[in-house]
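Handout for the seminar on molecular recognition.
Each group receives one record of this type.
Step one: identify the two inputs.
Step two: read the structure output and locate the region that could contact flavin-adenine dinucleotide.
Step three: write two sentences on what you found, then compare them with the reference statements printed after the record.
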Amino acid sequence: MADKYDVIVIGSGPAGYVAAIRAAQLGKSVACVEKWINKQNKPALGGTCLNVGCIPSKALLESTELYHEAKHNFADLGINTGEVSVDVPKMIARKDKIVSELTGGIEMLFKANKIDWLVGTGKLLAEKNVEVTDHDGGKKTYTAGNVILASGSVPIELGATPLEGDIVVDSSGALDWESIPGSICVIGAGIIGLELGSVWRRLGSDVVLLEALDTFLPMVDQQVAKDAARTFAKQGLDIRLNTRVTGSKVNGNKVTVSYKDKDGDKEMVVDKLIVAVGRRSATEGVIAPEAEIGVDERGLIHVNDQCETSVPGVYAIGDAVRGPMLAHKGSEEGVMVAEIIAGEHGSLNYDAMPNVIYTHPEVAWVGKTEEELKAEGADYQAGTFPFAASGRAKAKGDTGGLVKILRDKKTDRMLGAHIIGPSASELLGQSVLTMEFDGTIEDIAHTIHAHPTLSEAMHEAALSADGRAIHIANRKPR
Ligand code: FAD
Ligand code: NAD
């Protein structure tokens, strides 16, 4: 293996591995340092997203959604199944197989692109030297023309609720239970709490989510968030706001959770506790002081709009830097940085960042919420369309939710799109593209949408912004 590379990437999550592949495509000699040891005790590429994040959680969400459909909704569609049962170990094994296929796929892509995987822990030293410590403690130093720091993030731990065995777990632990807990408490009604809470609720666990804030999903348009809160409550997710967890104590195979709500101090006893209170960037030990790279008090590496640090030729991307902690955000930063290193133009439109919560129904959004526009004093108009009025949603038997678009009243530009409903994650793409192209609501209104599709709801929401929707009674027809 060489000891000098054009580019060394530290971390092979969706930010780092994409940066490595794009740099190699552009003719650079590339190495990627990765220390991850997977569930099977083997080194693995792919980071949080592939090993314990996006992919395994979506595998379990898919299995449990289909189980729930078969058990509760098939009869309404005229399908009699008899007794529907669940095989949790098989579900977990399927999830693990998907993970190992995808992480193995990255290894193959590295080989195909002639990227060297340096197995071990990387540390940036001065002068773009990178020290790699292998899993046996052996050290070797490599030199790079450019370094990309992509060390990602780890779950935030609460001192008052330490992780304990398979009883008090973080998101990774909650992906591996092989039997269905009777009761689960989740600390945090954020994205992880809702996704993993949904997985186990669909399988029959009693799930309580304790959330410190008094607003549910504050980053989501509140019309959509309120719809989501109603729907999740109907599904049996017991979401309690204004409730701060203060401690936990494991007793045998149960855990007592202490919390404080508006009525004072309380306790509950449950089978499992999931700590899902956010993630923090994982930059400790990644940068030696002599490398002189600035990190803020939350561990985020200081970068400019092009993800370059204060040291020329050293970049940082993904969860290790400012912005939302999302896989696609990290990947696109990886592409941008690799292209800049190769002398090409690179930029990213952070205003058109898609966000999705993969519950059922899914919640998906891009751009500004109505609350943000109001606070800015923007001259905007909203258009909405409920899935209850969509022929395709009715045919699917999935009519909850709505599409809401926000437009600039003067320019007609799309300022935001917010969806709760079936396939919201896929429907959102049209709005992201509209914003990326700096498009208008009239562009969507003028586009022919196939019938019958869920995407017609987006079309109708666009039409409804100025009273032209066909399939709802408009208040102010033009
Ligand atoms: P990571 O994926 O965290 O990868 C960083 C890598 O760097 C790790 O492999 C780590 O081992 C390695 N590393 C760190 N330090 C060193 C070192 N010194 N030397 C060598 N290697 C090092 N996002 C979405 O967009 N969609 C989703 O559906 C989604 N679902 C999620 C579900 C869960 C349960 C969780 C936990 C997260 C989810 N996320 C999702 C968030 C997503 O996983 C992260 O935003 C994404 O993985 C960040 O990518 P990254 O490459 O920056 O970091
Ligand atoms: P989050 O920030 O979405 O939610 C954490 C919640 O915990 C917050 O609402 C916070 O108020 C609450 N909280 C904190 N301390 C508390 C306490 N003591 N008691 C009660 N509530 C408390 O974080 P997360 O759900 O852990 O997810 C972490 C990150 O991972 C997110 O930022 C997200 O970007 C990413 N992620 C994305 C997806 C996706 O894109 N579908 C899925 C999972 C995770």
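Reference statements: The chain has three domains: 4-155+280-348, 168-277, 352-464. The pocket of nicotinamide-adenine-dinucleotide (ligand 2) is lined by residues 158, 187-193, 195, 210-213, 244-245, 276-279, 324-326, 356-358 (CB under 6 Å).
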